[in-house]
Design brief:
Layout (H helix, E strand, L loop, with lengths): L14 E5 L39 E5 L15 H6 L8 E3 L10 E3 L7 E2 L5 E5 L14 H13 L10 H5 L21 E5 L2 E5 L7 H4 L28 E7 L3 E6 L17 E5 L4 H9 L5 E2 L10 H4 L8 E14 L9 H10 L2 H7 L6 E3 L26 H10 L7 E7 L3 H17 L2 E7 L4 H5 L3 H6 L4 E7 L5 H9 L18 H11 L4 H18 L2 E12 L5 E6 L16
Parallel strand pairs: 2-11, 2-12, 15-16, 15-17
Antiparallel strand pairs: 1-19, 3-4, 5-6, 6-8, 7-8, 9-10, 10-11, 13-17, 13-18, 14-18
Length: 586
Amino acid sequence: MKTRKATAVLATAVVLTLGASACSSSKSDGGGKGGGDKNAVADAALSSIVNKSDKKGGTATYEVSDVPDSLDPGNTYYGWVQNFSRLYGRTLTSFKPAAGKEGLEVVPDLAESLGKPSPDAKTWTYKLRAGVKYEDGTAVTSKDVKYAIERSNFAPAALSNGPTYFKAHLEGGDKYEGPYKDTSPDGLKSIETPDDQTIVFHLKDAFADFDYLATFSQTAPVPQKADKGADYVKHIVSSGPYKFSSYEEGKSATLVRNPQWDKKTDSIRPALPDKISIKFKILQPTIDNSLLNDSLTADAAGTGVAPQTQPKVLSGKYKKQTDSSYAGASSYIGLNVHVKPFDNIHCRKAVQWGIDKASVQQAQGGDPKGDVASTLLPPTVNGYSKFNLYETPNSAGDINKAKDELKQCGQPNGFTTNLTARSDRPAEMAMATAVQASMKKIGITANIKTFPTGKYFTNFVGVPDYVHSHDLGMIMTAWGADWPTGFGFLDQIANGSAIKPSGGNNVQELDDPQINKALNDAIGNTDAAARTKAWGDIDKMIVDNASAVPLIYRKNLLFRPESATNVTVTQAYLGMYDYLLMGSSK
């Protein structure tokens, strides 16, 4: 999941549930009425709900340092948007809004129950809840869910973001051209809708994690008559408790209550605030100051405070309002195997040996922001296996081994390449500078090229043609599991089937038949223990290929304003506040 899904779920992630009033700075006692929690301590939200409140009303306010990839549920892969979209889009299943490990539980949402699999796990059936309506009062049907998946997975020219699981695993998915080109009434035949409440998925291979896949915003229903392709984001039709009252691309959006939402059909959304406001392109230090001043509900991106803010929140009175949560995510460098000289494995291994990971860790904020990584899978994802194929003293790199690999790849004097990073992410820019310094020591000149987060994958590093023509050999990126298993973490960044014309996340363009087969074989294995072992084995295969350089197991140093209510960390959306549980004290 880009931790853009930073992508994806322990991954994918960790989600914090937050409720706060940004209407004023006045406070009140806790105890279910909103206001500051006098008993709050640091990391309290990792395993409990801080400052519980059941009070309705007020406005929840969010800001983010860049723009979303898209607020269209069918055209997004950012973790924070996946979380945010649950306010206006209901998916077949969802993660339970709850504290700690309970937040990893998959529960029914739009569907009445979890999926009913066939014995071979190749057919999955869901029955939709009765009485769910769009904002215009029309009923949500299974055909709308089918259409939503068809548009999101099979129309890359219009909707380039999002994962490719449905396309890769549904029968005929590799041949279906999407609803904008294929206008036949049956659409993709491997998704059946025998009645308005039933949807059946026919897979070409077994897929034991399908209930996790059904949590994706791609299963949020879309009425075909309202779809405008890439312009649907301007008039999204809500199936959740909130609907859009305004949307200004690149600037802001406002959501208000959807009068057609019925709490009787929705067991997971308390829907406490009356209004939700979000602003884009706000400088991270400005966002941090607003949090400290208690005039903002949360940083929507959920990736933590800026490096310059970190010392302030880790000392004195603010310490008790912080939560340093593992994000179920890793920062790493993708070495594109089609950009010379990284088509040679020894050139890739020179980078692996030459990286001073300790300096990278310090650059991105030290221990509070993450641990040095030797694997792609973080320790919090099912299937993690501890290994270190490129172990160096104090994780500071080994210049001699790196130079030996340079000789073997025919570049004894080193070479010049380009290293990408996101310009509006100060921590990533600092990490890139540390990487650049490491490379200089072994004779590699890495020129840093910067791009904005909102277009990083759609226009630049996720576009193979652009990467090749601009010699983007080293790509700074981060990834969180789409769901908390090895497949949910690895497939979209290492399977050749995930390579796309744009918006791709397999930035290395790794397409190794052995790795592809291992991933597909493992997800089809109904033996849970065997699947778990396989993920660690596959992780080692990928790191041995040397096209991905693990850097940091990420943590998010989050700050909760004093009046924040219903704050908790859950393991689902990359270490951010869970927008479903947020309330408002005003």
